[in-house]
């Protein structure tokens, strides 16, 4: 049984490598290779530490984001999205395709990478400072990954449509992890590499392992168990990428407004209680003493 599994993994590795050898861009986890420089018009390094943890600020003119110098007003919202999932499932490609506007061609496993973008919340027309936190899916980084979770507004739990095992790992590993560290944070289950669902080479490769690409129904079924939204995209073909982030922005801004409304309602309630107590400042938080009964 173990021998059969190792053969399956080897064949899968061969399939992915053959995809590279044909000089075709594969959905990967990191957008640059060592020594390769990217035009300054595309991206600008904000800060980095030993090449492992860095923050990128987009200078793209796509209208989705802008550089800090081009901004005239401070962002109305500042939000953080963390992306988790198996290594090699396409998390970094999703972030680069969205924030930088191009599909990366070289696979280098991510350690931790941050991207800052300034999209617009369409309903209000206000700018959102969106921090995108890319994480490593490899087991050796399991102890470091929780450092990414504090103050997270939304989490993308990702899997690859051409790798059914990555969907199994969502329920076995990723959902329990985010539920432990971020029990009240909204989730979006994201199916990546949707362009490979009907690709013959992918279908034939999975067939040798007795598998098939993940269907939309299967993804939606898992999302329902997670109480999460479900979306799919192809970073390579840029299909569904913008829609995923627009939905994410709508969700986090909506949650922000709900919190503000709840706080406003609480303040209004406190003022009412204060007025009933003679308008004494802070009286809303004072508990009336229980009157004692005098028995004759």
Automatic annotation (TrEMBL):
GO biological process: cytokinetic process; small GTPase-mediated signal transduction
Biased composition (Polar residues): 50-70
Membrane among keywords: yes
Gene3D superfamilies cross-referenced by the UniProt entry: P-loop containing nucleotide triphosphate hydrolases
InterPro entries attached to this UniProt entry: P-loop_NTPase, Small_GTP-bd, Small_GTPase, Small_GTPase_Rho
A GO cellular component annotation in the UniProt record: membrane
One example GO MF annotation: GTP binding
Chain intervals for the UniProt region annotation (Disordered): 17-70, 263-283
Keywords: GTP-binding, Lipoprotein, Membrane, Methylation, Nucleotide-binding, Prenylation
Cellular compartments annotated: Membrane
Biased composition (Basic and acidic residues): 26-36
PANTHER family xref list: RHO FAMILY GTPASE (PTHR24072)
Annotated family: Belongs to the small GTPase superfamily. Rho family.
This protein's name: Uncharacterized protein
Source organism: Phomopsis amygdali (Fusicoccum amygdali)
């Amino acid at each position: 049984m173990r021998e059969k599994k190792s053969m399956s993994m080897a064949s899968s590795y061969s399939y992915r490598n053959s995809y590279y050898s044909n000089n075709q861009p594969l959905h990967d986890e990191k957008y640059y290779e060592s020594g390769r420089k990217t035009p300054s018009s595309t991206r600008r390094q904000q800060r980095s530490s030993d090449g492992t943890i860095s923050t990128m600020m987009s200078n793209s003119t796509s209208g989705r984001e802008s550089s800090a110098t081009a901004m005239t007003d401070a962002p109305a919202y500042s939000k953080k999205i963390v992306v988790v999932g198996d290594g090699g499932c396409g998390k970094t490609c999703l972030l680069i395709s969205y924030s930088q506007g191009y599909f990366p061609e070289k696979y280098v496993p991510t350690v931790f990478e941050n991207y800052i973008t300034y999209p617009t919340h369409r309903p209000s027309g206000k700018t959102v400072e969106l921090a995108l936190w890319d994480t490593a899916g490899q087991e050796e980084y399991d102890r470091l990954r929780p450092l990414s979770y504090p103050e997270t507004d939304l989490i993308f739990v990702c899997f690859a449509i051409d790798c059914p095992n990555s969907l199994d790992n969502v329920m076995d590993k990723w959902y329990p992890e985010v539920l432990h560290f971020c029990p009240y944070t909204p989730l979006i289950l994201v199916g990546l590499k949707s362009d490979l669902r009907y690709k013959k080479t992918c279908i034939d490769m999975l067939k040798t392992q007795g598998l098939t690409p993940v269907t939309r129904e299967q993804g939606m079924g898992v999302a329902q168990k997670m109480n999460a939204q479900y979306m799919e995209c192809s970073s390579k073909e840029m299909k569904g990428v913008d829609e995923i982030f627009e939905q994410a922005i709508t969700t986090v801004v909506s949650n922000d407004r709900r919190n503000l409304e709840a706080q406003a309602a609480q303040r209004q309630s406190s003022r009412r209680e204060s007025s009933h107590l003679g308008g004494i400042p802070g009286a809303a938080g004072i508990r009336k003493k229980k009157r004692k009964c005098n028995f004759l």
